[in-house]
Amino acid sequence: MTAVRESKRIVGDELFIIAGKMHGAGVTNESGSDITSESTIKDLVEGGADVILMPSPGTVPGVSVEDVRNWTSYIHEAGALAMLTIGTSQEGASKDTIRQIALQNKMAGADIHHIGDAGYNGVAIPENIMEYSIAIRGKRHTYVRMARSINR
């Protein structure tokens, strides 16, 4: 919480501050459904976090769609955005797994979707990025976004 408050003091509203945990990282009491709480979310948002990140359902043992939906609702009530993350190497999983995680994230209320970098040479498998996008917004929208110039 101290780092969030200090970051907000330094950068003000010039940058988005993103805080939270995408996996337990071996910390026993900070995994599964204990990875975050309403009080942690409240502290982060009050400290200046604009976005709270948390694991996508099914990417961390014990984290369900219901857990994430509850946390996402609380994040929105607190005035922040919710980023749901795949940070457990599942970005390299089968297309069916990617689609399932993507749809669960959408059902749980994700504002921002994050797919990790544990694919080839530090980037998610490009086919899985496309599968994820198609799952949450369809082929037409995905292809239009891929074809659109970054200069628009």
Q: In words, what does this structure look like?
A:
With 152 residues, this protein is α/β, with parallel strands linked by helices. The protein has one domain: TIM Barrel. The chain is built from five helices and four strands, in the order αβαβαβαβα. Helix 2 links the parallel strand 1 and strand 2. Helix 2 runs parallel beside helix 3. The termini are far apart.
* Assembly type: single chain
Cα-to-Cα separation, first versus last residue: 38 Å
Which topology does CATH recognise? TIM Barrel
Largest sheet descriptor: 4 strands, parallel
The percent of residues in helical segments reads: 40-55%
Give the CATH architecture.
Alpha-Beta Barrel
Mean pLDDT over the full residue set: 91
Classify the beta-strand content into a percent band.
Answer: 5-15%
- How many domains, as an integer? 1
CATH superfamily descriptor: Aldolase class I
